[in-house]
C-alpha cells in the first residue's frame, strides 16, 4: 500500500474483535515507531504496552469510561519523558519537544497499524493522574495518548474533513 492510500485508509476504530495481534505484527509496529523522528534524535518518550485486562479496565476508567479501551487486545500508552529532552533543550524540550516526540511516535503507530491490517484510535481524553496511577508511571513521565490496537469489529467509513480552502492559509 502506498503512503497516500495508507493515509486515506486510516480510520478511528472504537470496536475490536476478540482476536490477539500476531507477535510479528506487533513487533513490526514497534520497530516502525522506533524510527519516528524526534527532537535531536533523543526519543524523549516511553511506550507502555498493556495487555492485562485489569490494567486496561483501569485505563478505560481513567479515559472517562471509554469501554472500547478494554476491548482492544493491546493498548499502547505513549508518555512524554521530559528528562530525556531537557539537558539539550532546557524548558522547551521539557514542555514541548518531549510531548511532540510522543505525539509523532503515536502517529507512526497508527499508520503502521493500518499498514498491518490493524485498527486503532487515538485516545486523548483521560485523567493524567489516573493513567499514571494505573500504570505506576515513574515520576516525571507524562501520559500523552492511549492507543488501543486490534482488529476492527465493524468497518468504519471515511469521516468528513475540512475543505483545504478553510484549512490552509497562505501568507
What is the strand and helix layout of this fold?
Layout: H1 3-9, H2 23-33, E1 45-50, H3 53-62, H4 68-71, E2 74-80, H5 82-115, E3 119-120, H6 128-135, E4 142-150, H7 164-167
Antiparallel strand pairs: 1-2, 2-4, 3-4
Helix pairs in contact: 2-5, 3-6
The ordered string of helix (H) and strand (E) elements is: HHEHHEHEHEH
Gap between N and C termini: 35 Å
CATH topology: NADH Oxidase
Topology, number of strands? 4
Strand order of the largest sheet: 1-2-4-3
Q: Please tally the helical runs, counting DSSP H or I stretches of 4 or more residues.
A: 7
Structure characterization notes:
The chain is 46% helix and 14% strand. With 171 residues, the protein is α+β, with helices and mostly antiparallel strands. The termini are far apart. The mean pLDDT is 96.
Amino acid at each position: 500500500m502506498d503512503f497516500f492510500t495508507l493515509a486515506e485508509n486510516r480510520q478511528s476504530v472504537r470496536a475490536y474483535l476478540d482476536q490477539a495481534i500476531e507477535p510479528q505484527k506487533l513487533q513490526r509496529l514497534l520497530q516502525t515507531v522506533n524510527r519516528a523522528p524526534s527532537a535531536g534524535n533523543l526519543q524523549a518518550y516511553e511506550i507502555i504496552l498493556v495487555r492485562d485486562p485489569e490494567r486496561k479496565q483501569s485505563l478505560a476508567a481513567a479515559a472517562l469510561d471509554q469501554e472500547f479501551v478494554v476491548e482492544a487486545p493491546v493498548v499502547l500508552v505513549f508518555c512524554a519523558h521530559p528528562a530525556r529532552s531537557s539537558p539539550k533543550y532546557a524548558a522547551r524540550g521539557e514542555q514541548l519537544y518531549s510531548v511532540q516526540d510522543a505525539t509523532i511516535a503515536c502517529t507512526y503507530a497508527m499508520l503502521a497499524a493500518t499498514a498491518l491490517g490493524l485498527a486503532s484510535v487515538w485516545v486523548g481524553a483521560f485523567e493524567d493522574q489516573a493513567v499514571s496511577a494505573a500504570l505506576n508511571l515513574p515520576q516525571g513521565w507524562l501520559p500523552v495518548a492511549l492507543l488501543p490496537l486490534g482488529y476492527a469489529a465493524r468497518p468504519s467509513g471515511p469521516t468528513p474533513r475540512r475543505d483545504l480552502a478553510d484549512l490552509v492559509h497562505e501568507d
